[in-house]
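[User]
Um, tokens okay?
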Amino acid sequence: MSLNPNLMPRLDSFSSRTRGSSHIDFKTATTGVAAKAMKNELSRLVATVQDPNARKVIDLYPDYRAKSFKQFDLEMQSFFYLFTRYLAERAKGQDILLPAVCSEWDRINPPAVEQIVAYDSLPEITSNDVSLLNKLAVLKVNGGLGTSMGMTGAKSALEVKNEMTFLDLTVRQIEHLNTESRVDVPLVLMTSFNTHEDTLRIIKKYANQQLRIITFNQSRYPRILKESLLPCPQSADDDKKHWYPPGHGDLFTAISQSGVLDQLLADGKEYLFVSNSDNLGAVVDHRILKTMAEKHAEFIMEVTDKTKADVKGGTLINYDGQVRLLEIAQVPSDHVEDFKSVRKFKIFNTNNLWINLKALKRVMETEGMDLDIIINPKNTDDGQAVIQLETAAGAAIQHFKNSFGVNVPRSRFLPVKSCSDLLLIKSDIYALSHGQLIINPNRLFGTTPVIKLGDHFKKIANFQSRFKSIPTIIELDHLTVSGNVYFGRNITLRGTVIIVANEGQRIDIPDGCVLENKLLTGTIQLLKSIDITIITTIRASARRSLIKKDLRRMLVYKSQ
């Protein structure tokens, strides 16, 4: 079978991508057997789009209606380029899971003082600064499905507060910003082939809102069979399970190839604020925007102080005077504990990014965006080992001039990654102001409670069935729930509450129950009419030690 000339790597088109410090020997990489085999398979995939019998791709993937043969060809070329970089690193004998900087760990240091700016030091906003908003666009990474929470559709469609979804809250925030400041800040949604149709259906209800919504698809790359290093899909219309969205680092290629970057620049936009759609703390911040303009920064990453819950989060490092992003998946095994150390690396990446659009255009047209490759191993439903080549958007910081991190308050990082997070957001700990979450003024402490729900609450359907209504937790410090537990209506939780239903047992917390500094375990099935008496109240001084004790030593409470 002859190779599709449109798919064949063209040295002139790739030369602009291989300039600078990340240059690879392209010719050497493509002469390998694996590269040639992949090239042939990708040519065949592209050819199936031309085949009239394969046109059903349009029906199976409606989100690809607008994608011409040329666009699909470009996607496959981008994938092939990423694949050849992967092969080149492997051919050099370097651990392909690790970026080159990790080969010399001693040269990796925490960020220098000038590489991280404290949020409190940022300039205050004046009335003259409002005009900067007209140069801003907001982009939400909207390609996730929320599979870890048992969802099958777009995660951004999940109701999280007052019957409003992630997207509802974002739209309300930006609409209020546009109306209040009399500006035009568009909302850009980067979807994936998994979420595009859901997103298009959802945004129809915003047609009369005071904002423009722009959507574009990130790339769709073929999964790679680990054994043969060949693509999983056999045709362009093959099942979705054989394809994957290649991480949020694909943002830069996708926004460029889709034409959205040129559209924003033509509209007079100079700055792009990027965040994940499930981070409810990622709202437009005037002070960061002003800092970007005044310092002529091309890239700003929001970071925040690390806690024990964040030790696996990516962090900024200083490598030979250059600020770079390092993810835990890229760290040598014998240095993982160093990476997780709060003493050495005190901050982590929130994935709230501020990008100068003119600088992005320059980088994409000159040196390109060769981001560190992250290998994501997976297994198919039939047990086959596959790999996904992904990239992280924050890694782009090394490609921009005058780039640095801003250490922001924790309130700007409120992701919903689990049902424990969801319970906190849905509760009375937070109130809403024009779509933005704010701490309830009746909360006496500035910190939020620690909530740990067990596996019975892991999936969203189970979570919803186990709470008749969301408990009042304004005075809660810590909640741990494990096992088969159900909550009634109008329940109040205060202080430290631990509820453990042992294997084969069930605990029902009745309507109107108030639990304050309580430890419950065993089998409890109480009725509303029964007066609840808990034998032991955990004293405040003993809370921490009791939480740490083996649950087998907990008292067993039974209703008579």
Observations:
- The mean pLDDT is 84.
- The chain has 15 helices and 27 strands.
- The two ends are 79 Å apart (CA to CA).
- The CA atoms of residues 171 and 435 lie 8 Å apart.
